[in-house]
Amino acid sequence: MKKPICFLVVLCVCTLFVATTFVANAVSFEGDASYVFGLGRSKSRGFTAHGMVEVMNDVFVDGSFLSTSTKPAPDAEDEKSLSNSLFSVGGLYRTLNDPDLAGYVGAGFVSLTTKEGEADAIVGQGFYGKFGFRFRPMPQMSIVAEVSYAPRYKEKEADRSGSLVTARATVAYELMEGLGLQGTIKRYKASLTPVASDTVVGGGITFRF
């Protein structure tokens, strides 16, 4: 339990820092945080957070973080614990800005750290391209979908390259101005690091100001 609590504390501190440092000079700021768990055979549990700051009209700084861990069953001697941390940061340009539909394209940097059992952590990095959209079927509800692709995803300190694909979709409902609830699903798959793929679902809060 200590690790999730520590993560929540760090997340709150980082959110406050971003809000007080950047929002004063930005057009808008929005973010979300969710508790997630793996689908299917995956036994992963963890947290994910996303944030987007509009630094000028139609131009955004975009970042996300996902941390999951899997603990082996007490009677499974051949299984090992597994932890994954996925971090990305980049820029977005809003290509479409209608009242009910917005479209985005962008690029950035992504890093995935995988640690299995007592083995050394494996770190993969690369630059990605991204596109996505936001649809508002009603004033209080929004649907977000986005896909990013890193075609030259490389294992750090190794002469190997592959690819990394990440995608997410969320449905959010605003309960009051600037605060709401959401459900999210996120999928990532890397072609290099072992067992570096997962699909997680969960729910949490959204905020904007």
Structural summary, described in words:
With 209 residues, the chain is mainly β. 10% of the residues lie in helices and 67% in strands. It is built from one helix and ten strands, in the order αββββββββββ. It has one helix at 2-22, and strands at 28-38, 45-56, 59-70, 82-97, 101-116, 122-138, 141-155, 161-176, 179-190, 197-208. A ten-stranded antiparallel β-barrel has the order 1-2-3-4-5-6-7-8-9-10. The longest helix is centred in the first third of the chain and has 21 residues, at 2-22. It is globular, with a radius of gyration of 18 Å. The two termini are 31 Å apart. The model is unreliable at 1-24 (pLDDT under 50).
Q: How does the SSE layout of this entry go?
A:
Blueprint: H1 2-22, E1 28-38, E2 45-56, E3 59-70, E4 82-97, E5 101-116, E6 122-138, E7 141-155, E8 161-176, E9 179-190, E10 197-208
Antiparallel strand pairs: 1-2, 1-10, 2-3, 3-4, 4-5, 5-6, 6-7, 7-8, 8-9, 9-10
Short description:
The chain is mainly beta and 209 residues long. The protein contains one helix and ten strands.
The shape, in one word, is globular
Average pLDDT number: 84
Radius of gyration: 18 Å
The count of helical stretches stands at 1
- Category from helices, strands and their pairing: mainly beta
Give the SSE string. Answer: HEEEEEEEEEE
Largest sheet: 10 strands, antiparallel, barrel
Please mark out the parts with pLDDT under 50 across 5 or more consecutive residues, or reply none.
1-24
